[in-house]
Amino acid sequence: MSITKKQKEVLDFITSYWDKHEVAPTQKEIKEAFGLKSFGSVQRYLKYLKDAGHIDSNWNARRGLRPKETKAQSVDENTIEIPLLGDVAAGIPIEAIENPDNTIAIPTHMIRDSKRYYALNVKGDSMIEDGILDGDIIVCRHQQTASKGQTIIAIVDGEATVKRYSPLKNTIELIPANSTMKPIQVDPTQSEFSIAGILVGLMRSYE
Fold first, then answer.
1. Where is the active site (predicted)?
2. What tens digit of pLDDT does each residue of 179-188 get?
3. Which one of 123, 126, 169, 205 is the catalytic residue?
4. CB 161 within 8 Å of CB 91
């Protein structure tokens, strides 16, 4: 399971603390080190790191954390970090690709050229029949053109959506992979439409 840049920073803090003190930091020390607002935020980081296999924990012990490796970890040479831009339903600030607030490590085999790539969190079930589920992370290649039938990240009046691309004579049809949903009809003369990228990969957590 991949972890985000911020999650890796928390993991590195735990690991370096262990290397120095031979004991884990407390949740209070983690909270203060990263300026987190609540212990709930700390616990969400720790749960994800545990689910991803990076730490062991005894939740009943004050210093019950232990990194799986006791040396600060570096990014695997078989992975590369790309921008993680948030939820696909919330609009995509493409300029954030240059200066992202967050990143995620993905397998290098997903990157096949020198173009820009980014990742998005999937919200909703409009593409479930293509195996794209709510909570998945999709990997996208940034480009403004696509061929008919490709799955694209479309921006319609400022809102982002993932759909199959079907250009018609005077309109554009965005087709969901869900038989209970109807295609979205877009008239470029009436709506602002652009392509923000095409789908090239998918990552999923089973917990």
1. 126, 163
2. 999 999 999 9
3. 126
4. no
